[in-house]
TrEMBL record:
Coiled-coil blocks: none
Response regulatory domain mapped to chain residues: 2-115
PANTHER family membership: STAGE 0 SPORULATION PROTEIN A HOMOLOG, TRANSCRIPTIONAL REGULATOR-RELATED
Classification via InterPro entries: CheY-like_superfamily, LytR-like, LytTR_DNA-bd_dom, Sig_transdc_resp-reg_receiver
Protein name according to UniProt: Two component transcriptional regulator, LytTR family
Organism from which the protein derives: Sphingobacterium deserti
Keyword list, A-Z: Phosphoprotein
Record keyword Phosphoprotein present: yes
Entry-annotated residues carrying 4-aspartylphosphate: D55
Regions crossing the membrane: none
Length: 252
């Protein structure tokens, strides 16, 4: 098993390498990289690797910057002292997420997870790396769910269950048909592309599902004010420049 470690703290990197060798004697450390720039250059050389262990906060940026620049060549195990990166880690094709200080048990569980996935996909027709780390062309268009985090829980939300998306205090939230609200780690523009034709961005702050709209009223300012089937504390209006497009969309 060929492994690379992306970590800017020497003692942590050395401890991780020794732990991996102790738990998995057949493992081979192919490279230890300490910066975003160094990791990008290494991965662009198309190395033969099986697994990546990566810290998130590096001296010249975050490891997510690496995988925005270079498609990962192997599953990634993110290692960090903070849990607020969990959602982005799993959206960046992460295999696992380990909180520092890591233990033998946490590393062992991660390696077992990797082996189980490898065995599963080796029995099928897809390569494990393709299945776990490489999105196929047009994959976003076929997505049927959105991953959100609520406390320490990772929750898949079906896109068809989303009633609306909105910005509040510079954060993006989704609200479901059942009225549950979740913070998401995406921009409203990314949500607009993901959700498809059943949703319409009525203004800068809101995307609404057609089935969520109960009716619309014309205000004194000649804007359309929407009434929804779910409770929402903010009045949602359709911007004037989108009125005609909205009316056409509302008719299906």
């Amino acid at each position: 098993m060929k492994i690379i470690i992306i970590e800017d703290e020497d003692l942590t990197a050395e401890d991780l390498a020794l732990t991996l060798k102790r738990i998995e004697p057949s493992s081979e450390l192919s490279a230890r990289l300490s910066s975003v720039k160094e990791a990008i250059a290494f991965l662009k050389s198309d190395p033969d690797i099986d697994l990546i262990f990566s810290d998130i906060q590096l001296g010249d940026g975050e490891s997510f910057d690496i995988f925005r620049e270079v498609s990962p060549k192997a599953p990634i195990v993110f290692c960090t002292a903070y849990n607020q990166y969990m959602l982005e880690a799993f959206q960046t094709f992460g295999l696992d997420y380990i909180l520092k200080p890591f233990s033998d048990e946490s590393i062992l569980k991660t390696l077992e997870k990797y082996k189980q996935l490898r065995q599963t996909f080796n029995r099928g027709t897809q390569n494990m790396v393709d299945a776990v780390t490489r999105p196929s062309p047009g994959a976003d268009a076929r997505k049927k769910s959105l991953i959100v985090i609520n406390g320490d829980k990772i929750i898949p939300i079906q896109l068809q269950e989303i009633a609306l998306c909105y910005i509040e205090y510079e954060n993006v939230f989704v609200k479901t048909d059942a009225g549950k609200q979740y913070l998401v780690n995406k921009s409203l523009e990314e949500m607009e592309q993901m959700l498809g034709g059943e949703f319409f961005r009525v203004n800068r702050q809101h995307i609404v599902k057609r089935a969520t709209i109960a009716y619309a009223n014309t205000s004194l300012s000649r804007k359309l004010i929407l009434s929804l089937h779910v409770e929402h504390p903010i009045k949602i209006s359709v911007s004037k420049e989108k009125y005609q497009m909205f009316m056409q969309w509302l008719q299906g």
